[in-house]
């Protein structure tokens, strides 16, 4: 039997032994590292998400009352023909034109009326001449009254003739004024400044007196007629400010002019008349919605990002002491900027998740962004595989020295 000390390793055998030793050491290191990584998972759950938190705040929120209604003209003027049987010769304005008081809108043919005016002027001159003759005869009769040359009856006849002739003069003057007025009415003028909203006048048409030719929005003023329930009526007073938004998206700041004195018995709503400023984006007949400014009040608010809407309900997630969130159903109210009023369901001292709240579920473990994450301390279990690897390498070194 050979002595063990005299036994010699071949280079091939040495390579095989070294590979086995290194493989065994690597397996020990990997198994040790796996156990070291699994131990924190077993002892502590992993956070689902990193979130930021905020506390509810007491904020002054405006009190507003929303309403719907239609935009209408403050007042409309109907402009019609005042002459009868005349032909329309010229129309000078169209729908949408801005006109001033006294501006000529249309003209009628004036030849016939001018002829009537000339005839009435001649009739007036004739009546004035007859009146002068009658006055002279009456004066002579009165001068002869004391002499007895004329009877009292004759003197009275001359005096009556004088008065009759003077009456014919006044009648002729009145007829002349009427014809001159007809001549004036051959021009249709604007009764006030405003905007033409409708036109039915057609050149060449023969219209009767009273036929509407134009319709005008007086002063160009529009108003919003809001429908408000009778229960909210006491909160609105003349002079209150209103933010009105048209269907096109245009907005304007209006002022309550008056509240209707009666309530609609069918809808139980009352009309509130709101004066609108001059704004080209608003049109009569347009639908609009608005908010009445009724002051302000203190309210508990949270950031809008903290509000989560699920299944038609609003929720917030309250972060507890153990960094776990609780889902709470809340009732929301008014909104101002990026904050939402919470009417019920939330304590003022609670801490709610803000950023990332939409991805949370009830009971999730979270990490708060403003709390630094703990740095894990080195454990003895992670050093054991390294020690075993060092021992294996030392054994290989001794074996190599023995072979040499």
Walkthrough of the structure:
The chain is of the alpha+beta class and 404 residues long. The protein has 4 domains: 7-42 and 382-403; 49-58 and 298-368, conserved putative lor/sdh protein from methanococcus maripaludis s2 fold; 66-74 and 222-297, Efflux pump adaptor protein, beta barrel domain (Elongation Factor Tu (Ef-tu), domain 3, Beta Barrel), CATH 2.40.30.170; 78-215, RNA polymerase II/Efflux pump adaptor protein, barrel-sandwich hybrid domain (OB fold (Dihydrolipoamide Acetyltransferase, E2P)), CATH 2.40.50.100. Helices cover 30% and strands 34% of the residues. It contains 4 helices and 22 strands. The strands form 5 sheets. It has a 6-stranded antiparallel beta barrel with strand order 3-12-15-14-13-16. It has a 4-stranded antiparallel sheet with strand order 4-11-9-6, with no helix packed on it. The chain has a 4-stranded antiparallel sheet with strand order 8-7-5-10, with no helix packed on it. Residues 1-9, 20-43 and 371-404 have low confidence and may be disordered.
Low-confidence stretches: 1-9, 20-43, 371-404
Strand order in the sheet with the most strands: 3-12-15-14-13-16
The assembly state of the depicted protein chains is: single chain
Largest sheet: 6 strands, antiparallel, barrel
Helical content stands at: 25-40%
Structural class by sheet pairing and helices = alpha+beta
CATH architecture of the largest domain: Beta Barrel
H/I helix tally: 4
Principal-axes shape call: rod-shaped
CATH superfamily of the largest domain: RNA polymerase II/Efflux pump adaptor protein, barrel-sandwich hybrid domain
The tally of domains stands at 4
Strand fraction:
25-35%
Rg, Å, rounded: 52 Å
